[in-house]
Amino acid sequence: MSREEQILAAATRLFAERSFDGVGVDAIAADAGVTGSAIYRHFSSKDEILAALFDRLIDALLIRIGEPADDPDAEIDGLIAAHVEFSIAHPELTIIWGREQAALAHVYRANLQRRQRAYVDRWIQALDTRYPGLSRDELAAAVRATHALMTSDTSRPASTRRIAGLGPLLCSLAKAALAPLGDPPPARVAGSS
Amino acid sequence: MSREEQILAAATRLFAERSFDGVGVDAIAADAGVTGSAIYRHFSSKDEILAALFDRLIDALLIRIGEPADDPDAEIDGLIAAHVEFSIAHPELTIIWGREQAALAHVYRANLQRRQRAYVDRWIQALDTRYPGLSRDELAAAVRATHALMTSDTSRPASTRRIAGLGPLLCSLAKAALAPLGDPPPARVAGSS
DNA sequence: CCAGATTGGAAACGATCGTTCACATCCGTG
DNA sequence: CACGGATGTGAACGATCGTTTCCAATCTGG
């Protein structure tokens, strides 16, 4: 594990436990086994560390969702499973993702928002196909609601035990939450009733 | 509006926009029309301001939910409506609630957690009555998931427009999300099929 | 009008913040 | 061995942090 990765791992842990503004570079460096000034051999600023974390986060997320499925229901199920699995596999990054976006310096924010929008658009596309007739604002709100539901375990106090079978539970809740968005569209060709 | 309320209003706005650690007492005071040191005429510390915000937040929430309803479905619907309406009426407090709990000083944390547990227990009771047979951990996870869904609009970028009919949409999504928890329990006395 | 309490401002405190700089150490390559 | 680049340390920087202190202004009740 390179020093750079050690620093990122320490920053991930500390940013999640406290916050970006609540953690100093000296604390991150100490957790990585060096002194504060050594941070600047690997990152040009504290902000760049946070930006690197967001970049890795989106990478890990985009890798999980793969290529779109043809069947609308299968596509949504795949997106849900990927998102839930990510939030369980990387709880600390998930916490940072939901909490520290405003703390990201303006210089790096545009890039994060662009990649993030690509991810959300994939969701909106999937929902629009499966539940047609909704406005883009409504679709975006539904996506936000579903994402919040799936990452809700990160708001659990760190002391409490993570329950077994959490992933399937969150998947079923997320899938069910989308039901009121509408009935499935009619199949392209006439067939079964 | 008393100076104390002005300070709390300024703190609410700034803590929500930036974060607790990211806002200095001078900024809060300036927003309230005084200098930084004047803060300490009304609050003993910056932490006490945050504690006061949490206290008011729980107050506003507990007032909204009122007394428990007899019908399990009506009770859940009431809880959902109250929570959604609160998060829409007080978006800044909702942001702070979800983001700054760890920033609250240890001295004030126990009180917040006690009152918050009372609120969550009311939810767990309602869900346990309507969807019996689940473990307490599962119920707690479902409550967290539903709460996250209902407050998801606070993760919207501040620049985007809030959509009309957001409240009913979130209510229906929240209600539907609970469906996979199980079928309704049989009525106490034999009657309609 | 005056005594006392309330409220606010200016300045300063020690601490911590992110960052830089000068210097030492190490390591691979010639 | 000599050398240059990569890596790390310790000290210091200006800035900002939360807080305290001292003093002035304002208000209130007798």
* Total DSSP E strands of chain A: 0
Largest interface: A-B, 42 and 42 residues
Measured distance between first and last alpha carbons of chain A: 58 Å
- Structural class from helices and strands of chain A? mainly alpha
Strand content of chain A: under 5%
User: Count of helical segments of chain A?
Assistant: 8
Helical content of chain A (DSSP H or I, runs of 4+): 55-70%
Low-confidence region ranges of chain A:
none
What's the multimeric state?
homodimer
| Average residue pLDDT of chain A | 94
Query: Could you spell the SSE succession of chain A in H and E letters?
Result: HHHHHHHH
Reported for the largest beta sheet of chain A, the result is: none
Overall geometry of chain A: elongated
Backbone CA Rg of chain A: 19 Å
Quick overview of this protein structure:
The first copy, chain A, has eight helices and no strands. Chain A has 193 residues and is mostly helical.
Write structural notes for this entry.
The structure is a homodimer of 193-residue chains. The first copy, chain A, is mostly helical and 193 residues long. Chain A contains eight helices and no strands. The N and C termini of chain A lie far apart (58 Å). The mean pLDDT of chain A is 94. At the A-B interface, helix 7 and helix 8 of A face helix 7 and helix 8 of B. The first copy, chain A, binds a DNA duplex (30 and 30 nucleotides) through loops.
